[in-house]
Task: structure prediction
Amino acid sequence: MNREEVINKLARTDDERLLAAKLFDKAQRNGVTAFLSPAQRAFAQTVSEQGRLGARFDGGYADAERTVAVFGYADAELSAIRLTIRGKEELTHRDFLGGILALGLKRETLGDIALHGRYADVIASAEAAELILRKLERVGSAAVDAERIELSDFTPPKIIGSTRPITLASLRLDCLIAEIFGLSRSEALKAVSSGLVAVDHVTAQKPSATVSEGSLISLRGHGRARLESLGGLSRKGRQYAEIFIFE
Result:
């Protein structure tokens, strides 16, 4: 399919049309996009596959949530910064993000921010990293030291949550949503039809869709979970499974 066919087929909103057009432009020029959210990346991956753009995605480390799309011989040119708190203040992810954006940077210039107690590691575009190193001295009420680190020294965010076994009447999405989040079947159906449910960062369209191992399921206002593994069937024909619920 050509550019217009791909955009007309896949884009459902003006934002998606704009992103799809940017992807085609970057592919033509061997360029790099700004950082994409997980949902944007999922859409970009589909556009790349349908349009045969050959995008690869880089967030500075394996399993990064926020990534750039890279085309042709281009280099992502990402940097890693470590922000260390000088005093005894306790800062949140929101504090660090707000402090960085207060420098005049846009969110799309920043990748993941991983908080580790007394410091936070940040992935950023090369230009954004230079500004952070030059200008960032305080985050909220806390003084911080900013230093460049190698991408290989970036410490990924800790994944916090718990695993629990469940049994399912079927692997339909609405069944899984109901079991994970404690909803009735009708509530689960309504959540999907209202656009509140996403599977692997893509808004779900069909309550009857089959969910596979490794899928990330989110319900707006309730949280996220991952279908870790599938087991056998119980005597009553129910599917044994294990889920990981993110805190």
In short: Residues 3-70 form one domain.
